[in-house]
Amino acid sequence: MTTPETQIKQMVKQYLDLKGVFNYPVLQGMGAYRGIPDRVMHYNGEVHYLEIKKPKGKLSPSQLDFYLQCQKDGIPYHVIKSLEDIQEIVP
Q1: What is the per-residue pLDDT across 2-45, written as a single tens digit (0 to 9) for each?
Q2: Which domains does the chain show, CATH number per domain?
Q3: 3-state SS class at 83
Q4: Backbone conformation region of residue 81, classed left if phi is above 0, alpha if psi is from -120 to 50, else beta
Q5: Which residues of 56-77 are buried (b: 16+ CB within 10 A; e: fewer)?
Q6: How many Å from the N-terminal Cα to the C-terminal Cα in the chain?
Q7: DSSP 8-class letter at 28
């Protein structure tokens, strides 16, 4: 049985692949940076970070720190909670 978050991750990957958008997962493991997002995509000449959450999910403190660093650096960061969220970014 897949979780709602896993289902959204699969839909986002399939949608981006259908749109021809280069994207890849960020694999977590020993030594990984805390708070790093789930997926990266290259779109319109920019690198975008995608944190995928279940519909009522919230960022952890380390994810919030990563998001704030991206904001400070002008790097696009998106919290995706549905297929519609990614469709708004990549129509």
Answers
A1: 898 999 999 999 999 999 999 999 987 767 788 999 999 999 99
A2: 4-89 (3.40.1350.10)
A3: helix
A4: alpha
A5: eeebeeebeebbeebeeeeeeb
A6: 30
A7: -
